[in-house]
Design goal:
alpha+beta; single chain; 16 strands; 2,3-Dihydroxybiphenyl 1,2-Dioxygenase, domain 1; 21% helix; 8-stranded mixed sheet
């Protein structure tokens, strides 16, 4: 299978809207994602995997990243890495039998973000919903169709974690990265920034000098505009061996032409895609 076709299978998310409406991300009660009492406003503070098969997803991610799992109920589990809770898995039944990662941005007013999204030409996929114990969430589509979520937590946000096998970064891949950056920058008091990454100018937005979201021209016109999430690993090649052994697929192997061979794109057995990277420069 050609790399462009593989990437399309990773990133096309047109079926996500119906899935999210029915899934347990919008149930009336879930445990808090943190009791820190502090907010990391403007940052991605949580990731939920929407999956058709909790057991299958736990087997894959446990084998590849050594994550641990704590059931919350029959259809939702907490995910921990090295003692810190970093994500959730939500099971739902969908006709496509596929999984998706959803990034949640910390905000202090969900309704304001919904209003700004609509005014900018985006869509509201799941309206402002209060989840007892967790806070308020909404699932949105930006003006170019990339799906993301916002959360106003009840008890605070998790502290940002850079341990191996934890989330390290996130990007929006789109037809027009400048327009994407302008949209997300309008949602919060972000500052625009640029730096040289392996010889290429890289655009991102930051909060109080802390990088938050990057923006990339998608590599093929047939790929849907989407968020792409990164996990830090100690050894990309060793991790890829675990991916294939656990039934996943390597969509892009490390190449010296792409960030000096430090990154790879993978897909879990149910279709959710991720980037793994040894480090961020």
């Amino acid at each position: 299978m050609a790399i462009k076709t593989q990437l399309k299978s990773l990133l096309l998310i047109s079926t996500l809207t119906a899935s999210l409406t029915a899934c347990n991300l919008t149930q009336t009660s879930l445990p808090a994602i943190s009791d820190s009492g502090n907010k990391q406003l403007g940052h991605i503070v949580w990731h939920d995997l929407v999956t058709p098969d909790l057991t299958k997803s736990q087997a894959f991610y446990g084998a590849v990243f050594d994550w641990q799992f704590q059931p919350v109920n029959d259809s939702y589990v907490f995910v921990s890495n090295q003692g810190q809770t970093i994500a959730g898995f939500a099971e739902l039944d969908n006709n496509q039998n596929s999984s998706h990662w959803l990034a949640l941005v910390s905000v202090n007013n969900v309704e304001n973000v919904i209003k700004q999204t609509r005014q900018s030409g985006g869509e509201v996929l799941v309206a402002n919903t209060t989840i007892e114990g967790r806070g308020n969430i909404a699932v949105l589509s930006d003006p170019q169709g990339a799906v993301f979520s916002v959360i106003d937590t009840s008890n605070g946000d998790p502290n940002l974690n850079t341990a191996d096998n934890s989330w390290i970064w996130q990007e929006v891949w789109s037809d027009d990265p400048k327009a994407s950056q302008a949209f997300y920058q309008s949602l919060y008091s972000y500052n625009a920034a640029e730096k040289n990454v392996f010889g290429t100018n890289y655009s991102y937005i930051e909060v109080n000098n802390s990088p938050a979201i990057g923006f990339v021209k998608k590599p093929d016109a047939g790929i849907g505009n989407t968020w792409v999430n990164y996990i830090k690993v100690a050894d990309v090649d060793a991790t890829l061996l675990k991916v294939t052994a656990a039934g996943g697929l390597v969509l892009m192997a490390p190449s010296e032409k792409v960030r000096n061979g430090t990154v790879a794109i993978i897909r879990d057995p149910s279709g959710a895609g991720l980037v793994i990277q040894e480090s961020m420069q």
